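Let's sit down with a protein and look at its sequence and fold side by side. Once you have written the record down, we can walk along the chain together.
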Amino acid sequence: NKRLDWETFEKMQKVQPLKVIASGLKSERAFIMDMEKGSFSNIEELACCMRASCLLPGVAGPVMNMKSPQEDGTQPQYDMKPRNNYEVEDYEPLADALLYEPLPYRAAVSEGATH
């Protein structure tokens, strides 16, 4: 197994940023996570975002809850908690992206993708 070279990954975020898509169960829309907005800043946080992106509630454990972005779209800080029925207002429960955007072309276009 080859480990992810985090330094190279960080440099590539300026050229070709990774956008991790999950379904926001409160907002009922695609939830976009990326390094630029502060959704993750290390490999462990990226792994949590990816887990949320492919999580089937009830099958693969509790949903992941991420602190909702501020009005300007940035995350105040990385803060994700795995737990069902997490009743804190400013957290978005996340699950598999398939629920609201099976083919995330709308999210890609909204984030500036051109091809």
Q: What stands out?
A: The chain has a mean pLDDT of 84. The longest helix spans residues 43-53. The CA atoms of residues 38 and 81 lie 16 Å apart.
